[in-house]
Amino acid sequence: MPVTLAQAKLNATDDVDVQIIDEFQKSSDVLNRITFDDVVSGAGGGATLTYGYMRQITQRGAAFRAINSEYTPTEATKQRYTVDLKPLGGSFQVDRVLNRVAQARETAFQMRELLKATSAKFNDAFFNGDTAVDANGFDGLSKILTGSTTEYLPLNNGVSVGYLDWTAVNTQALAFAQIAHIDAWLGTLERRPDVIYAPRKAKALFKTVASFAGQYSIDKDDIGAVFGMYDGIPIVDPGTKDGSNTDVLALNTRDADAGGAGGNIANLADLYAVSFGLDSVHGVAMAGGSLVSNWMPDFSTAGAVKTGEAEMGPVAIVAKKTKGVAVLRNVKVA
Q1: What is residue 6's predicted lDDT score, i.e. its pLDDT?
Q2: 55 and 117 share a domain?
Q3: Which NCBIfam families does the annotation name (predicted)?
Q4: How far is residue 120's CA from residue 27's CA, in Å, rounded to a whole number?
Q5: Domain match, 192 and 309 both
Q6: For 178-203, what is each residue's pLDDT tens digit?
Q7: Average pLDDT, the chain
Q8: 316/116 Cα distance (integer angstroms)
Q9: Which domain holds residue 96?
Q10: For the residues 247-268, what does the mean pLDDT come to?
Q11: Does residue 293 contact residue 112 with C-beta atoms inside 8 Å?
Q12: Which of 8-12, 104-108, 113-117, 122-126 bottoms out in mean pLDDT, i.e. has the lowest?
């Protein structure tokens, strides 16, 4: 059955499993929210770990019909997609002397850092994954949404310079002009999103814009994290990439007006509005397997240096509906 990390923690076999799942939850808002559909079979000796699904591309409308006339046939459109599940994690080695002298603290430290890195790597892939760059990963939201009906480009929505400038918002009138675009972007979705993910600088300016419009508030989630909200929707910075201080949602330099007079514009942010669920954005995992696994170093056997490992999956993400996730491109935040 579909499982979240919170549900997986309830089924954990020991304290170590609980602590490891808890670390994933606390270090990633995405992992705390996402549901994994554990349906991929290991049939065929595990040679194929592919999840196939239909993505709804368009919705259909309805119309009144005159008596003695027929409706004009119209169908909602779907497209078939597949994604390959991949394992994600790492390993470390500890000398038995270090483990003994440090009273196992070195092993605990290395495992904790590995979990943080794995969580950060999943975050990065969730937004920026591209199998053309890393064949061992999966495609993220940026690639999935490129060219879709929920990719909101200011240039296509009445902004001739091609970007929204949040750095210039210092009056209520200017804030409401930006709010109009934010609401139009969110309006491309079929329902209110569960969360808006924004780069660090964009999140700070979002607070300013929303406060001018009286749409900013603060709340706390179920694991104690405090976050700001726009019109009741949490605004979250997904943090940094694994092994670095580079933001997962990095700022970009782009020709926002597509060859117009503006040239390249620096410090442009992309924001993501996500609806999680098995009919929208969710993860996929193997049937009958553990979502998170760990192997602690075994110092009870011969050998001076022992290896520990932690692994997620194999996993991947999918977007079942184009209307379930949207991206707002080209917001100037610096």
Answers
A1: 58
A2: yes
A3: MCP_gp7_epsi_15
A4: 8
A5: no
A6: 999 999 999 999 999 999 999 999 99
A7: 86
A8: 18
A9: 5-60+77-141+279-319
A10: 92
A11: no
A12: 8-12
Q: Are residues 250 and 302 in the same domain?
A: no
Pairing of strands 281-286, 265-274: unpaired
Q: State residue 82's pLDDT score.
A: 85
Cβ atoms of residues 230 and 210 within 8 Å: yes
Tell me: do 26 and 132 sit in the same domain. yes
Better pLDDT: 59 or 216: 216
- The SS3 call for residue 261 is coil
Decide: residue 174, CB within 10 A, 0-12 exposed, 13-18 middle, 19+ buried: middle
Residue 286 has, within 13 A of its CA and on its CB side, a CA count of: 19
What pLDDT score does 43 carry? Answer: 60
CA distance 325 to 277: 11
* H or E stretch at 82: strand 78-84
Identify the H or E element spanning 123: helix 105-128
A 10 A CB-CB count for 115 gives: 24
76 in Cβ contact with 56 (< 8 Å): yes
Task: Verify that 9 and 131 share a domain, yes or no.
Answer: yes
The residues, any chain, with a CB within 8 Å of residue 272's CB and separated by 6 or more, are: 127, 141, 196, 197, 198, 249, 325, 326, 327, 328
**What are the pLDDT digits (tens) for 275-305?**
999 999 999 988 877 788 888 899 989 999 9
**Nearest to 90, CA basis, from 242, 291, 258:** 242
In the structure encoding, which two tokens stand for residue 271, read together?
Answer: 């924001």
The three-class DSSP label of residue 89 is strand
Of 52, 121, 54, give the one whose Cα is nearest residue 85. 52
Quote the CA–CA distance of 169 and 206 in Å, as a whole number. Answer: 10
* 186 three-class SS: helix
Question: Which tokens is 262 given?
Answer: 């503006």
Structure tokens at 272: 């993501």
